[in-house]
Amino acid sequence: MKNFGVKLVFLSSMEKIVLQPRCKDSLHFKNFWERGNGKQLIEFSGAEVSLKDFEQFASYYYHVDEIGDEVVKEVYLTKKFHEASREIEHYIRNGVSENDNVPESVKKLFFQTQSIPEWLDKDLLKSGAELCMRSGLDALISLRDYCLIGGYDYAYLNKPLIVTEALKKGAVKRLSETLDFWVNATRYDALEVHAKGYEFAIKTRLIHSYARLSVKKHYTNWDTENWGEPINSWDMMATYIGFSLVFLHSLQKLGNTFSAEEEQGIFHLWKYIGYLLGVPERLLPDDKKQATEYFYLWTSVQPPSDKDSVLLAHSLLNESLENPILKFKFQRKNLRYLHICCTWFLLDDEVCKRLEIPNVSNKNGFPKAKRFFNKLYTTVVSREAQIKAGNKRHLKVLKDYLEITKGSNFH
User: Fold this and answer.
1) Which whole-number Å values give the CA distances from 272 to 97, 138, 198, 283, in the listed order?
2) Residue 334 lies inside a defined structural domain of this protein
């Protein structure tokens, strides 16, 4: 087995993996940060990137949400799945107290998530939710054509998706689940204890633990040294930086503007969602400068696209052709074309080539028209009307997706 910059250190007869920034001299890493979207992120955020803090973060590559894992072991793996799910839903909706006769792991999970951290600012949560809503369809374009497909370029990040056979489930279902989570977590008061967004956060946290335990039990070829633990805390950090930093950068590229409070609100929103999902607070950035510096460190251990990445990217691109929401074939082909255009516009050319994104004609036409329209739209439509219209569009798209995927198990 190849060893890409990982050293084994023996301490007190225990084996400890020490990770190195193995890709720091690689061409894909340098090009991204010196002339690609990484360079744009530095300019956007004012970040000062370096590897000096690498060791403070590297251990999180082998760190997981142990509380969530224990809940799955004590609840989901000791009874029928539907019974376990009903039990967890009861705890989510009714809460857990010290006197309840429940497993200790359940108490730990709900005591943490029911405890409001001192740093939480509900006004900032509201501002973050409002930016998500008023971004309308641009938010969905950003999530799909920059955050999600761009994440496929990081080969090791995608290994849990591959080994849990996410490709067999299909991109329509994966998109539906992601959209359901994102919409429900980014509305007004969604993250109040017992509210819908809070429920999605707890369930998603346990899905991650269930998947991680399944990988560790059934996939004997999992390469912990190089890939990290399945769904590890550092990879989780990178995912939520995608929902905050990368999301904002994409909105800006598409001609959207946002206030300093909205920007701060997005990071605060995802910091709290990450907290509910069991990501260590140390890894949850407060602003774009911090997020870019954290992201730089994480990318230094991620090799570029491999054949699995290409399969995932093409599965997502072809989702438009498979999705029955649009009735006619020409509509689906046109939607796929528009997503391809946005992907080329939002991602680096090198990334698009690695992911084998088709090179279509006039690929800048639609994104540039979108930029022009967005700049006009924000000057003539009030912020309140933008929020209302964007929320309505999100709920309509989500409703369409849920209708075509109903009957299949969320898990």
Assistant:
1) 22, 23, 10, 12
2) yes
Do the domain assignments include residue 13?
no
Query: 326 with 335: CB under 8 angstroms?
Result: yes
H helices, E strands: number in the chain: 24, 2
User: For residue 365, is pLDDT > 80?
Assistant: yes
Residue 48: inside a domain = no
User: Pick from 180, 200, 295: which is nearest to 248 by CA?
Assistant: 295
Which residue from 16, 90, 41 is spatially nearest to 289, judged by alpha carbons? 41
Cβ–Cβ under 8 Å, residues 43 and 36: no
Q: How far is CA 236 from CA 7, 230, 280, 298, 320, in A?
A: 23, 10, 10, 11, 27
Question: Rounded to two decimals, what is the model's pTM?
Answer: 0.93
What tens digit of pLDDT does each residue of 62-117 get?
Answer: 999 999 999 999 999 999 999 999 999 999 999 999 999 999 999 999 999 999 99
Domain that holds residue 340: 62-405
